[in-house]
Write a structure and sequence with these properties.
With 330 residues, this protein is of the alpha/beta class. Helix content is 47%, strand content 12%. It has a five-stranded parallel beta sheet with strand order 2-5-8-1-9, covered by helices on one side. It has a two-stranded antiparallel sheet with strand order 3-4. It has a two-stranded antiparallel ribbon with strand order 6-7.
Length: 330
Amino acid sequence: MIPSHIVAALGSLLNIRQPVFIWGPPGVGKSQVVAQVAKEKGLALLDIRAILLDPVDLRGLPRITGSGDVVWCPPGFLPGKGDPERGILFLDELNAAPPMVQAACYQLVLDRRIGEYSLPDGWNIVAAGNRDRDKAVTHRMPSALANRMVHLNFDICLDDWLAWAQQAGIRQEICAFLRFRPTMLHDFDPASAAKAFASPRSWEFASRILASSPPPALEHELFQGTIGSTAAAEFMGFLGVWRELPTVEDVLNGPDTAKVPEEPAAAYALCEALALKAAPNTIDALTTYAERLPAEFGVLLMRDAACHDTTLVYSEAFSRWAANNADVLL
């Protein structure tokens, strides 16, 4: 299930207070999807790492009342008085916790209570974890716990990630490279002993490294330690092409004369950068330049420009370009 579908599924499951478990390989953005849903729905998000708990932690501590009875004081990390009325209790890396800790979650997940503690009505339970085959730190989930939740499998989707990346300020070079080499978005091999590998999470790290303007002599080693040797080698080659491209300003100021890249990688890169500048005052220049690009790249540029600013599809320039390229668009 791709991220946008998981977001929609969580919306439905939260409405009926159905506990859910999200399965996926390391670094794909499981936690970010849960945080996105919480933000969109105006819910508080309480992140609890079950791997850090002992089985008795969820029950709390006993105390003796004035009448001599023993009552249990629930732990402060569970939602209670003073917390927002509505939220998500997120049990991240639940299947990395020892079996006894997972067993301690049975009653909380199914009955929304544990001992004398009750989960407030406005709160929902969402859990996430890596798959057993990913060679991450996991314990087999007891069937009794697994049967208490709906299970969603997280699949990688480049389009969903690019939509997120545009909002998150991920560097244009990285977005353009991944359009050109989509298999590099998540290049994870559980059998490999490599410590670094390409994933949505590590590409975000790479974007931060680029933004810090590291010394050119160190770039390759930094990327190699972030996204792995294979992705780093390809990305460095792509960066060399990117840095030789005409600037966005050159294209916008002279769309009739600006250089048109011959290499597909360069064309992908330039289209990515130009689309981010799409606006009513640049659409004429963009359509002029798109007419000079190979047809598939002209469509790529105009599609991304329309995604960046949907009002542009009603402009005269866009309509003219669409009419001239109707055979490609059909």
